[in-house]
Give the backbone structure.
Amino acid sequence: MEKGRVILENRQFKLTIDRLCHQLIENHDDFENSCIIGIQPKGIHLARRLHQRLLELTELSQIELGVLDVTFYRDDFRTREKPLAASPTDMDFLVEGKKVILTDDVLYSGRTVRAALTALEHYGRADYIELVSMVDRHYNRHLPIKSDYTGIKVDALDKAYVSVEWDEIQGKDKILLFPKKN
């Protein structure tokens, strides 16, 4: 893949995570009956980072954290040339009656979030579900889904690509914008 343009990195990236955490603290207070669920494969990094930082900021001993795979709930599951590879789901709790904080790295068409909402139904009926996205590509949304908490909004053309890189995985926190492919 050709080199992308860095649109957010290091200090600003960490400040964005902190801002998202403070917004969550304002709305969830002590996180009683709240849980954070990362959408596989890339939303889990945001979920883990938020979870870690929230524990530090609130000095709470625990906030429930889960990882949700949506592979078999996607509307394009059977339309791909090769089979999609499923990722593990790791949720040792039900969402029945809870305030769910659902996370994904990039909100683009809304289809992944729709699949996650369907998958969550198997874990009970949540009181409500909020969405946190590190990047909101609000153009070209296919479904009426929006992020409740957004790290950064990116106005990119349809064929452009936005990538979130995480220190734990790629060795550095940054958000990249790759140009439109011909």
In short: The chain is about 25% helix and 25% strand. The first helix runs from residue 10 to 28. The CA atoms of residues 11 and 33 lie 32 Å apart.
